[in-house]
Amino acid sequence: MTQFRSTRTRSVWGMIGLLSICACANQRGPPGGPRDLTGPQVVETFPDTFAVLTGFDDEIRITFDERISERGVEGTLDGAVTISPESGEVRVRHSNRALRVRMEGGFQPNEVYRVTVQPVVQDLFRNAMVGAFEFIFSTGAEMTPTVLAGSIMDRITGEPVQGARITARVEGAPEVEGSDDLVIPTHVAVSDLSGVYAFRYVPPAQYVMSAFVDQNRNREYDDLEPIGIGRAELNPADTVLLDFVLLAPDTTPAVLGQVDVLDSLTLEVEFDDFLDQTSELIGVSASLGPDSLGPPQVSTIMHQRDYVERLRAIRDSSYVADSIQFVEDQERIELLRSAGDSIAADEIEAGLTTPRSPPESSQEDLRTRDLPKRMLYLLLAGALTADQPYELSVAGVTNINDVPGGGGSAEVIRGMPQRE
What we know:
Elements: E1 3-9, E2 42-46, E3 51-52, E4 60-64, E5 81-84, E6 90-94, E7 98-103, E8 112-117, E9 133-138, E10 147-154, E11 165-170, H1 180-183, E12 187-190, E13 196-200, E14 205-212, E15 227-234, E16 239-246, E17 256-263, E18 266-275, E19 285-289, E20 298-303, H2 304-338, H3 342-350, H4 363-368, E21 373-380, E22 389-397, E23 406-413
Parallel strand pairs: 3-9, 10-16
Antiparallel strand pairs: 1-16, 2-4, 4-7, 5-8, 6-7, 8-9, 10-13, 11-12, 11-14, 14-15, 17-18, 18-21, 19-22, 20-21, 22-23
């Protein structure tokens, strides 16, 4: 199941503050000190920022303010530089204070190129770049100020996805066999630590976009990689925001796994797939057998979120009842003391305890409340007999990928209650 959200504004510069990038090639670190704690900074690029070089098909050079390591933060400088649009594999060569970059397929005429140095470059003391560095140049095309940006989130964890590869291709552009990349330029971006991505100065057009975790680093989406797909229309001077939620594909239904007896009236059922807690459980059924035992009926099927809310409501009502009783007992104590019966008042006071309020929901609980879970909860109309084996059957479950037909069967045994 793919999810995305699109928003349009008319101010191109309003988005620039969201980008952890820079467009000026003249930056220097703070004055020196006894120890170098500052990562390398770009001081010069060729081509220069916003340069127009018709017929350019040369090597890109990126110069830093200090010597840089041959090894990146992740162990290699492969992927340290992203070029968009992309016509082939980007090859990065290390020199003393610079990176030299070539792209397989070369640079095409009448294109606007965006070059991004990812913050994996580090100096000899392993101080990495603070953030990505970006510059724009043209091989003849007009540089139209546009922004196409957004955030990438993991559907299961709700966390931002760093390092996701985002591609944008013009929708409906003609294809030529053997030269697709030349006819349909592939614009490329990589999400940062906060899961934010940005395309700047991309030509106005209708784009088909995809965001995925390139686990094998082959620059192409593969079947098992988490992905999100969307479309965006970009006009001159536009800022368009498009967020992606990534989910690994799955074509198989959820299978019933473990069943836990929480108490004589409640079963916790776990599946091998995640379930959407915001979905209705229409069509989901559960029953206990065999019929010869007269097993209790399943009266309610609940998502984990709803079950937790039910427990909280029960605790809240118990707290209210205890609080009312506490106030009534205090009033009785006062009346007894006023009547001179201190012995009876002391007896009531000895057994008096202040009600404990239920715990507040933490920020983490609230953040993860609606995230997918693997569990369903079954409330029974009657109690399970201890040490009696039952057969639980569940059907009609739809997983997080909208694959229906999930379920299965498992044995359920409630253990004998332990005596204190």
